[in-house]
Amino acid sequence: MLALRWLSAAALIAALCVALWRFARGRGAFARYAAHPSAVIALAALIVLYVIAAFAPWLATHDPIAILAQALVNHPPSRELLFGTDYAGRDVFSRVLYGTRISLTIALLATVISVIIGTAYGATAGFMGGTLDAVMMRFVDAFLAIPRIVLLIAIGTLWSPLGMTSLILILGLTAWFPTSRLVRAEVLSIKERDMVAAARALGARDLAIVRRHVLPNVMTPVIVAATLGVAGVIINEAALSYLGIGIPDPTPSLGNIIREGTPYIATAWWVALFPGIALVVTALAYNLAGDGLRDAMDPRQVDHT
Amino acid sequence: MTEPLLSVRDLRTYFRTSAGVARAVDGVSFDIAPNETVGVVGESGCGKSVTSLSLLRLIQRPGSIEPESRIDFEGTNLLALDDESMRKIRGNRIAMIFQEPMTALNPVFTVGAQLAEVPRVHSNISRHDAWARAVEMLGIVGIPDPAERAKSYPHQLSGGMRQRVMIGMALMLSPSLLIADEPTTALDVTIQAQILELLEELRVQKAMSMLLITHDLGVVAESTSRVIVMYAGEIVEQAGVRELFAKPHHPYTEGLMAAMPRAGTKRERLAVIPGAVPSPYDWPAGCRFHARCPYAWERCEREHPPLYQIGEGHVSRCHLAVEPERRNTPHVPLAARVGAGA
Q: Which of A9, B26, B305, B338 has its CA 20 to 30 A from that of B81?
C-alpha cells in the first residue's frame, strides 16, 4: 500500500517536472528562476527533503514507533540518539524522518486532488459562464467564507478516526476553492482572446477549445498556486495532527511529534524543536520555490523576439 | 448574374443587455458572388465586425441574430442549421482571419501543430499526414524553410509571418469564402502590401470569394471589386470600387475619403468627420448620419432614408438622391456646432 503511494507520488513529481519543462521551454524561464538565489536554495532543500522522505527507512537509526527503553525517556540529543527521545522513549530523529515522509506524501497527494478538482470546477464555471457560473461560484464563496482550519476540524471530528487516506481526502477536498477561483478568472480572460474566437471560426468543438487553448494556458498560474498550496496543506495537516485530529499516534507526522513534545517543552525542548524546524523548512521551501516559479513563469515576462 | 455564393438578407444582430437593446447590425443585406472580393468599410463601432461574426454565427451572449434575418450560403440558410452542422461549415466552407495575429495564435503550441489541428478537427486524417499538410501550407503562404519553421512557437515569428500562419490556418481546408477582419491593421505598411498581395494571389488560385473588412480605404482600393460602406449598423452606400472612388454619393463616404491621407499632397491637417458614431442603444431618428452631415436638412431629421438606386449596382442611403441640388449648399454640421458650444 505504502509502496503504491510512493510510486504514484513519484509519477506525479515526474509529471510535474515534464509539465514544467514543456511550459518553460524556449522562454528563458529557467534563467529567470535561477536568478532568484532563495528559489534555488528552496529547490535544493525540497530535493533534499524528498530524498530524506524517500529513503527514510534506510536513513533512520531506530524504529520510529518502538519504545527503546524505559530509561531512555526524554533523553537529550546524543551521538546515538541524534535528536534525543520523546516522553515514551522513542527516537525523535527517526520519527522526524518518517514524519517528514508522511507529511510530504499527504501534502502532495492532497494538493494533486485539490488542483484537479479546482481546475475542472473553475474551468467549467468560467467557460460555461452565465447562471451556471454564478451558482458554482456562490458555492465556492460560501466555503471560502469558512476559515479552512475550522472546516477541517469540523470534518475531521465527524470523520474520526482518520486514517492516512481519509486525511488526504479531507485536506484535498477542502483546499480547492481558491484554485477554482484562480482558474475561473484565468479562463474568463483566455476565452475572450482572439485565439479562442479563431479556433471557433475554424470549427473547433468546445471540448477541443478547452483542451487545446484554455487548459494549457492556465497551467502556468495553476502550477505556481499548487506549489504554494503544498505549503499550506503541510501546515494544515500539522495543525490538525497537533490538535489530535490528524494522523493518530503512534504513526509519526510532523504535527503529532510537535504535539507530543509540547507538554515537555521546558525540560525536553528537542522533541518539539526538531520536527518544528523540519516543518518550517518544508513550508518555507515550498513558498520560496513557488515565488520563484511565479516570477519565472510570469507570461508578461515572455520575451517577444 | 450568377447565383451568389452568399446572400445576406435583413441581417439584424442585437445585444439585449440591462442597459437596453444595442442594435449593432440593423437590417443589412448584401450578396457576394463566387470569386469576388467585397470590401466593408466604416469607423469603429459601425457594425462591420459584428456583421462578419454573424455570418459564422459566432455572436456570443447577450448578442443574438434576430429570427427574421436570412444568411444563404451555397444554397442553405445558415441561420436554420443546427449547431453541429454550423460547426462543420466553419473553417471548412467559410473561414475567418483576425486582426491580431499574436493573440489569435496559441502561445503554447508550435505553429505547425496549430495548422495541423485544423484538418484534424474536420476529418480523421492521421497526425503525420496533418503535419505534412501543415508544412506544405506554410510553404504556400510564403514562409521560407517551412519544415523548420513549423517547429517554431508564435512568439519566435514576426508579425507578418504570424499573419501568414493565420492565413494558412484559414485556407487549410480550401473554404469557398474567406472573411478577413482587418487582416493588415496590426502590421507595418510594407508588410501590409505583401499580405494583401498574398491574399489576392491565394484567392485567385483557390477560386475563393473574400469579404475584406477594414477601416482603411487604401486597402479597399487596392484589393476589392465592390465596396460596402457601413454606418451605425446599416449599409449606407454600396458600389463598384471605381464608381465609389470616382463618384461617392453618401456624405459619409465623402467624409471618409476626405479623411484619407494622400501621399504627394501638401501637408495640411486631415479633414475629419465631426462628432462620433452614435450609440447603438439609441440610433438617431431619421437619417442616422444627419447630425454629422454638412448637407442635412429637416427631412433628414424626420425621415429615415431608404437605399436609393444611384446607378448600375450603386445604391446610397441619402435623400440627396432625390434632392441633388442640396449638395450645392453645405453648412456646418450639427455635431460640430454642439461640439463648439460645449
A: B26
Band (pLDDT 50/70/90 cuts) for residue A302 is: very low
3-class SS at B24? strand
**What does B280-320 look like in DSSP terms, one character per residue?**
TTSPPSSSTTGGG-TT--HHHHHS----EEEETTEEE--GG
Task: For B282-330, write each residue's pLDDT tens digit.
Answer: 999 999 999 999 999 999 999 999 999 998 899 999 999 999 999 998 8
Pick the CATH number of B6-30+54-178+193-208 from 3.40.50.720, 3.40.50.300, 3.40.640.10, 3.20.20.60: 3.40.50.300
Q: Between the CA of residue B65 and those of A86, A170, A268, B21, what are the distances in Å?
A: 75, 48, 77, 12
Q: How many CB atoms are closer than 10 A to CB B87? A: 21
Most distant pair of Cα atoms in chain A: their distance: 78
More confident residue, A269 or A5: A269
State how far residue B276 is from chain A, nearest Cα, in angstroms.
26
| B340 or A190: which leads in pLDDT | A190
User: Contact B167/B157 with Cβ under 8 angstroms?
Assistant: no
Residue bearing the bigger pLDDT, A64 or B72: B72
Q: What is the chain A residue with the closest CA to B118?
A: A202
Structural domains in chain A, sorted by start: 53-69+77-281 (1.10.3720.10)
Name the residue in chain A with its Cα closest to that of B113: A212
Residue A155 CA to residue B83 CA, distance in Å, equals: 45
| Closest residue on chain B to A130 (Cα) | B61
pLDDT tens by residue, B154-203: 988 988 899 999 999 999 998 999 999 988 887 888 888 888 999 999 99
Chains A and B form CB pairs within 8 A to the count of 77
Other beta carbons within 10 Å of B19: 9
The C-alpha cell at A254 is 510532523
CB B48 within 8 A of CB B185: no
CB contact under 8 A, A203 and B99: no
User: Domain limits of chain B?
Assistant: 6-30+54-178+193-208
More confident residue, A157 or B94: B94
The residue among B56, B61, B90, B106 with the most chain A CBs within 10 A of its CB, best to mutate, is B106
